[in-house]
Amino acid sequence: MLRQDLKKYILCDRYENIIKQLYLHSFLTKNIYRQMKELIEKINTEFEAFSKEAEQQSEKGNKAAGTRARKSALELTKLFKEFRKVSVEESKK
């Protein structure tokens, strides 16, 4: 009787660990997709700002807009690198 109870306990413990791992994986996957979605939104927002400032510089010769456009370009580079990092991390799973 004791041996059967022990086997049941071990089996239940294994199932519990599997369920915990599945829950954790699900949570991490949702977190990564949320993070990617946020990055895409930031990229789109920054690109809109870049386009606006670059247009002002090229059409009106506004030097300050050129400075802001270059700043946006640097920010876009950072965001693209972060997106690539998260994307590669997710694809390895």
TrEMBL record:
Entry superkingdom: Bacteria
GO molecular function: DNA binding; structural constituent of chromatin
Organism: Epilithonimonas hungarica
Coiled-coil regions listed in the entry: 33-60
One Pfam match: Hc1
Matching InterPro entries: Hc1
Family listed: Belongs to the histone H1/H5 family. HCT subfamily.
Keywords: Coiled coil
The keyword Ribonucleoprotein is assigned to this record: no
Name of this chain's protein: Histone H1-like protein Hc1
Keyword DNA-binding: no
Function: Might have a role analogous to that of eukaryotic histone proteins.
